Amino acid sequence: MGDEDEATEASKSPGCGAVGCGGAIILVAVAVILGAITGGDSDSNAEDRRFAAYDTCQQFVERRLKAPGTASFPNYFEDDGEVVVTGGPIRFTVVAHVDSENSFGASLRTRFSCVVTTSDGDTYQLVSLNL
């Protein structure tokens, strides 16, 4: 009867559950690896990267304007469809416009499409820019 009591007691102990300790460790390892592969972007981190891509594209556009000091870009945070950022977490395409003065002082609206890449979310490289 002692052996039966020990077997019953062992099955009642909390232990590692149905997956087992080894299975739980494997599940955690898979989650960590998948997070590293996908960039582990939370929604807010992904949004931060999209905004950074837009900000970077603005800088590249300003470098090509006749009067960069007059540049006015739409507000990224307004949901009016004037700024569209797609892609991620490594490659982003930004479509928007800039209002700026030309060499004669006339204000013009220019649509642009910009593609940038990042490997770390902090530094962005220009792939293409169409004005």
Describe the overall structure.
By secondary structure, the chain is of the alpha+beta class. The protein has two domains: 2-38; 43-130, Nuclear Transport Factor 2, Chain: A. It contains three helices and four strands. The protein has helices spanning 2-12, 20-38, 43-62; strands at 84-87, 91-101, 107-118, 124-130. It has a four-stranded antiparallel β-sheet with strand order 1-2-3-4, covered by helices on one side. A hairpin with a 5-residue loop joins strand 3 (107-118) and strand 4 (124-130). It is globular.
Class by helix and strand content? Answer: alpha+beta
What value does the Rg take, in angstroms? 26 Å
Q: What best-fitting shape do the alpha-carbon axes yield?
A: globular
Largest sheet, described in full? 4 strands, antiparallel
Topology record:
Blueprint (H helix, E strand, L loop, with lengths): L1 H11 L7 H19 L4 H20 L21 E4 L3 E11 L5 E12 L5 E7 L1
Antiparallel strand pairs: 1-2, 2-3, 3-4
Features:
131 residues; alpha+beta; Nuclear Transport Factor 2, Chain: A; 4-stranded antiparallel beta sheet; globular
